[in-house]
Write a structure and sequence with these properties.
The structure is a homodimer.
Chain A (H helix, E strand, L loop, with lengths): L13 H15 L11 E16 L5 E2 L2 E2 H14 L4 E12 L4 H18 L2 E10 L7 E11 L15 E4 L5 H7 L19 H10 L3 E5 L5 H13 L2 E5 L7 H10 L13 E4 L4 H9 L8 E7 L6 E4 L5 E3 L13
Parallel strand pairs in A: 4-5, 9-12
Antiparallel strand pairs in A: 1-6, 2-3, 4-6, 7-10, 7-11, 8-10, 9-11, 12-13
Helix pairs in contact in A: 1-3, 2-3, 5-8
Chain lengths: 334, 334
């Protein structure tokens, strides 16, 4: 075996079969993946969730995770945000010629560990290799399928005036952890990405109450984008309180230094939930019992009027509009 | 609107929403895509097929197609090769900063045209933008879901001695058409890629007979790889006849010139079928009535013994082993 990826590893010929059989199938082994027909075959019934994301994060290894863990969590979380139980994912690599095979092995091992944690299987995949300089190390696409329980109906369109707004924990950890690794931006921090599969946390929340109206994972664009999307889709306004927002010191400091708004920085293991006010305390209590929800907090409420507006009550008692990100201060954060 | 793609188009912020809403949703409009939650929600029952492929073809526009048409056809065909009726696909773009928006519009229009032809819907998607030099113009990933009728059981593991081997038409058109556009390789040809969705053709075949054991679309690695895969999975040998192989003059000439074996060159609108010998003529007759199967032909048969071996009877009456591609003479052909 070569120690770097060659163009021939993406050829559909002998080396391609070798890398698929020896590295991917062996690591990710399961009875649906193994037949290696042009499609995987599954049994399903009822309402299914289907989603996809490509991952181009740079660097591909970062504190708290890597592009493989990210690619599994991102798709698991997108399925979970409509209340689905994630079941299966696809895994497609675009590899730059010359990538060390050892790096690919580490990433495949991380994918296996994360799919085990989330309780899902990789059942189909693809490998393309492009010439040196035509991609940056490694891009991964995953698509996923999940099953939505019959009595669950979660959508960005369902927020109602009076509902409570919950976040599952501290904001901005992923974005700042990845940024801290960038050349020229390197700053010292103990901070790790929060990258995590949230399906277990959501299962605990749904066990506590079915009055969960909207779920979003505030990735690219941060909490600001997620809340603006919900406010627009549901034609409501949302008011949150700066005082209560869980933001780590390190993140607040880095954002100050870099001129970023922590509300616009990406998270990869957090969710925002809009829930019936009456059940909000019970849901937060359930979240506190789950390791990915220990810092969960009610941060605001949904209001009538000004459809699409998100406002923040600052520590000084004033109010400011929380807008979506304009421009792109953090390219390739996921 | 800018006339070139900016990093901010992949930010999850305002420009990202603009490009998604104004360009993608408007062009691909359908009731499952439109809610724009983190996952699309569908109803399903029974056996489903699930597959993915990334497309990195270069150039992104080529005679007979473009990367958009290719990305739809490839996934439609992979679903079809297990006998599934393709239903839904995901669409994920990785765009190099600076791509002309007009090029993206042309590709989205081509995607729309091809999904209409195949009778499927794009129901979820993703857009990432990377810095200039970190990708080559545009990569697309699609994943797809299809429904397998209850009485259909098609797999590379099902070939039996005595079965007939059918190809749906001329070999190597896609690979040579794309190669003809490469800088430095430019040669004059009228040849077009065969890039096409094959679900309609397969529906006609299944209407003629349910004794279809294996289907493959011979893309990367060509017919040689597909037949070697089937011979290995089914533990049989396969013998084909050079005389009968449908290969266009232009392709034969270009292969001669470039030192390529047309059996190892990619196709994107062809299939190879292993079928019960008794039904082979009826299946080929059904294929001749479909516009993507006019040149279909029985090219060989499955034999017992020498499991995994594919042999070609040459025009001279001698026999040669047809091996899988070694190395990669045609990078980024799909």
């Amino acid at each position: 075996m070569e120690d770097r990826i060659l163009l021939a590893h993406g050829s559909g010929g002998k080396l391609a079969h070798e890398i698929v059989n020896r590295r991917f199938i062996q690591a990710l082994d399961n009875p649906i993946l193994n037949p290696l027909d042009d499609s995987a075959v599954i049994q399903a019934e009822g309402r299914l969730a289907f989603t996809t994301d490509s991952y181009v994060v740079q660097p591909i290894f970062f504190p708290g995770g890597d592009i493989g863990r990210l690619a599994v969590c991102g798709t698991v979380n997108d399925l979970s945000m409509v209340g689905a139980k994630p079941l299966y994912i696809s895994l497609a690599f675009i590899i730059e010629e010359g990538l060390p095979v050892a790096d690919l092995d580490k990433i495949v091992a991380s994918i296996k560990e994360t799919t085990d944690e989330a309780g899902i299987q990789v059942i189909t995949g693809d490998t393309k290799v492009v010439e040196r300089g035509s991609a940056d190390q490694l891009f991964i696409n995953t698509a996923g399928i999940g099953a939505i329980p019959p009595d669950v109906c979660i959508s960005g369109h369902n927020a109602r005036p009076g509902d409570a707004v919950i976040v599952s924990g501290s904001l901005g950890d992923h974005g700042i952890a990845v940024l801290s690794q960038r050349q020229g931006l390197g700053f010292s921090t103990e901070l790790k990405s929060d990258c995590a599969p949230l399906n277990g946390l959501i299962a605990s929340m749904l066990a506590a109450s079915r009055q969960i109206r909207c779920l979003r994972d505030p990735t690219r664009g941060g909490l600001a984008s997620s809340l603006n999307e919900i406010a627009e889709q549901s034609a409501v306004s949302i008011r949150i309180e700066e005082d209560i927002l869980p933001i780590h010191q390190d993140v607040a400091g880095a954002c100050e230094m870099l001129g970023l708004d922590p509300l616009q920085v990406a998270n990869e293991g957090k969710l925002v939930a809009i829930v019936a006010a009456a059940d909000a305390e019970a849901i937060v209590a359930a979240m506190h019992n789950h390791h990915y929800g220990r810092e969960a907090a009610i941060i605001g409420r949904v209001e009538a009027g000004h459809p699409g507006r998100v406002a923040l009550k600052t520590r000084l008692g004033t109010s400011r509009i929380v807008d979506m990100l304009v421009g792109e201060p953090l390219p390739r954060i996921c």
